[in-house]
Amino acid sequence: QLQASGGGLVQAGGSLRLSCAASGRTFSTYGMGWFRQAPGKERDFVGYISRNGGSTYYADSVKGRFTISRDNAKNTVYLQMNSLKPEDTALYYCAAKKGVEFTTVLYEYDSWGQGTQLTVSS
């Protein structure tokens, strides 16, 4: 199970960190992704971190502003979001993918958290 948290209301230019806590003892065997979905839009890839945290990938829209990290001892993955823009407003989801291959494809992820809302005001 994945539990995302940390969402809220932030002014444009501000920062926020999302967390995603996983239950179980196999967290380190999963690559972790972050996705977001704005109202009326599809769920889009935001970023991904490999099982050991050695590799990260980002959508062009967040590159240089967002940073993914993980603490396998705490079974938690983080999404640090800086220089936030109103267009970052969305419901943010974390997802876990077994194996080593990076993907942005939603159905290739094995489990999903419930989502946490970020609203960025202008």
How would you describe the overall organization of this protein?
This protein is mostly beta strands. The chain is 0% helix and 51% strand. It is built from no helices and eleven strands. The protein has strands spanning 2-5, 8-11, 16-22, 30-37, 43-49, 56-58, 66-71, 76-81, 90-98, 111-112, 116-121. The strands form two sheets. Strands 2, 4, 5, 6, 9, 10 and 11 form a seven-stranded mixed beta sheet that branches.
| Number of helices in the DSSP assignment | 0
Low-confidence stretches: none
What percent of residues are in strands?
Answer: over 45%
The biggest beta sheet reads: 7 strands, mixed
Order of helices and strands: EEEEEEEEEEE
Helical amount: under 10%
Described by its quaternary structure, the protein is single chain
Find the count of extended strands (DSSP E, 2+ residues). Answer: 11
Query: What best-fitting shape do the alpha-carbon axes yield?
Result: globular
Terminal Cα span: 34 Å
Mean pLDDT: 96
Structure class: mainly beta
Radius of gyration: 13 Å
Question: Which descriptors would you attach to this protein?
Answer:
single chain; 122 residues; mainly beta; 7-stranded mixed beta sheet; 4-stranded antiparallel beta sheet; 11 strands; 0% helix; 51% strand
Write the layout of secondary structure elements.
Blueprint: E1 2-5, E2 8-11, E3 16-22, E4 30-37, E5 43-49, E6 56-58, E7 66-71, E8 76-81, E9 90-98, E10 111-112, E11 116-121
Parallel strand pairs: 2-11
Antiparallel strand pairs: 1-3, 3-8, 4-5, 4-9, 5-6, 7-8, 9-10, 9-11
